[in-house]
Amino acid sequence: MSHRPSMTLPFDGIALGCDYNPEQWPRSVWPEDIALMQEAGVGFVTLGVFSWAKLAPTPDTWDFGWFDEIVGLLHEGGIAIDMATATAAPPPWLTAAHPEILTVDAAGHTLWPGSRQSWCPSSPVFRTYALELVRTMAQRYGDHPAVRLWHVSNELGCHNGRCWCDVSAAAFRVWLSDRYGDIEKLNDAWGTAFWSQHYTSFEEVLPPRITPAVPNPTHELDFARFSSDELLDYHRAERDVLRDVSPDVPITTNFMVSSHQSEQDYFAWAPDMDVVSQDHYLDHRLPHIHAEQAFTDDLTRGVAGGEPWLLMESATSAVNWQPVNLAKRPGELLLDSLQHVARGADGVAFFQWRASRAGGEKFHSALVPHAGRDSVKFREVVELGAALKKIGDVAGSRVRADVAVLWDWNAWWACDLGSHPSGELHYIDAVHRWHSAVTDLGATADVVHPESDLSGYKLVVVPTLYLVSDAVAPALQAVADRGGHVLVTYFSGIVDEADHIRLGGYPGAFRELLGVRSEEFAPLAPGAGVTLDDGSHADLWTELLTTTDASVVASYADGPLPGTPAITRNGTAWYVATRLDEQATAALAERIATEAGVTRAGSPGVEVVRRGEYLFVLNRTNADVAVPATGTELLSGTSCNGTVTVVAGAAAVVQEGT
Ligand code: GLA
């Protein structure tokens, strides 16, 4: 995989930042905003994300006076600007004049204006208006000394990641024609001999709109690829204008690497970024919220090719968009922020500066809450700003990891399509379970693309990698051949990139590596479990597995296939053919990590991550802990010789050897 060139972030140290939406407030509030930003140590703000309607109040007029004023105030206040191109949400005059830019869902329903991101990624009309705004912004602010970073649109694909309209249909046909060249190649890839789906021309192809029965899965998979590429292409269009007019300012767009947003293949996007930036919100719908944060951080670092990245958005406390929006308890803001930094973030920013008075996000937390400056939240923000200043030298250092967890958006899209052996199997859950087992052991994992360089890892974990290219099995074989450990779990290696079964027995691509062969899947009914002969429990999945070269580590004691292997090893290549429960997953992860010689630190609830010469310790338990470390603890400025003591609910950042 190619990655963007290495680059440091354009802000100083580990910057504190936030989205700033001054158009929501009277001018009289702005000077106080700047003063409070200075008090909190805000280093940069993202400006203009949703300003289009105020910057272009009518189709024929611009109004930059108010924006110039706020840019000037920020600059005078010493606050840098991540300047948004302001194209995320078109104003009503544009959607009224050009309703053809609106997105359409798979059932053919138009998604009407009245919220945000009301635009089709393939719309040339939208693009014309948006690029005019980008050029105007770039000409006006491209050499302003406060502007350190360009921020293309906002969370490209948030709400409009896929569109099924006729304009998208035409663009999809062009994309397919570029990919396949010849319609017969598309027919082969999509397996259209099935159900009389043979196409005679690209013109007959539609986006995968709602069908009477199961749609063609490769059609769906290609539409997912197209949709990701289409927004990347849109990013490039804005980027090219910015580069042309404002060549010295780096460019980013904020990614949404997350467990509930699957539509962008960020491995494909990252090489186009000068800075990889990422938005993360704790997801309280999941059982292990901080494990999920660790996972997305490790994946964001993987997307950034191991380089530092920028946390562009997070929340100081609750969001507004989950079923119940849980608030952070005192102390959690610092710990959560440092978790991002420990895992590679060189800046910590939030949505948003001041909590809105009106609109759909008025109950979303902010740096300045509705209660104002005199609040626990603002005092915590000030403490956070001070803490980030103290650890500014961490910026630029790299996280060290012994373990790689393989991840691929293509595999996610394909694995979660319908008509599979079990609708209960979700790729993200499988990856989370193994990533968190590894991190709970105290190991650090990079989450990387399957075709990454795996040469430095002691253990490579391959959870439920349903779709793989031909290159992956030989790369894993090379890891095993040099004595590294490889752990593959159920429903991996099943199909090629066209979603065609790899014949001859499962797990297709990995049969030889693992020394096993499986003839039939036997998934379990929801709620049903199975016991292994080592006493451990599992659910979801079993399969009719035989060993060819592998030895059996554990077999099923009951369930549909008693006596059949459930866990095997072929030297250092392990196969887990079922979904072990969390306890059994942890036990197996521990056994393999120990054999592999994986470096471990920390204990349950105490996260220890090494970034360059810096050791981060996050103590989420109710007890004080002592962790081996020698050097200077930067948050307190004290020395530690042999151990650092971290009180309950607190954090430490030790610069070792000082
Ligand atoms: C996203 C958006 C922000 C805001 C937050 C709320 O990250 O980019 O504009 O809506 O969600 O959590």
Question: Based on helices, strands and strand pairing, what is the structural class?
Answer: alpha/beta
Q: How many angstroms does the end-to-end distance come to?
A: 37 Å
Identify the overall geometry. globular
**What percentage of the residues does DSSP assign to strands (E)?**
15-25%
What is the number of E strands?
26
Strand order of the largest sheet: 5-4-3-2-1-9-8-7-6
Share of residues in helices: 25-40%
**Given the structure, what is the number of helices?**
17
Low-pLDDT regions? 1-5
Bound molecules: alpha-D-galactopyranose
What is the average per-residue confidence, as pLDDT, rounded to a whole number?
A: 97
Q: Can you describe what's shown?
A:
The chain is of the alpha/beta class and 658 residues long. The protein is 30% helix and 19% strand. The chain is built from 17 helices and 26 strands. The strands form five sheets. Strands 5-4-3-2-1-9-8-7-6 form a nine-stranded parallel β-sheet. A seven-stranded mixed β-sheet has the order 11-10-12-13-20-19-18, sandwiched between helices. It has a five-stranded antiparallel β-sheet with strand order 22-23-26-24-25, covered by helices on one side. Strand 8, helix 11 (332-342) and strand 9 form a beta-alpha-beta unit. Helix 6 (166-180) crosses helix 8 and helix 11 packs parallel to helix 12. The longest helix has 29 residues, at 217-245. The chain is globular, with a radius of gyration of 26 Å. The two termini are 37 Å apart. Mean pLDDT is 97; it is low at 1-5. Residues 154-155, 279, 281, 313, 319, 351, 361, 364 line the site of alpha-D-galactopyranose (GLA).
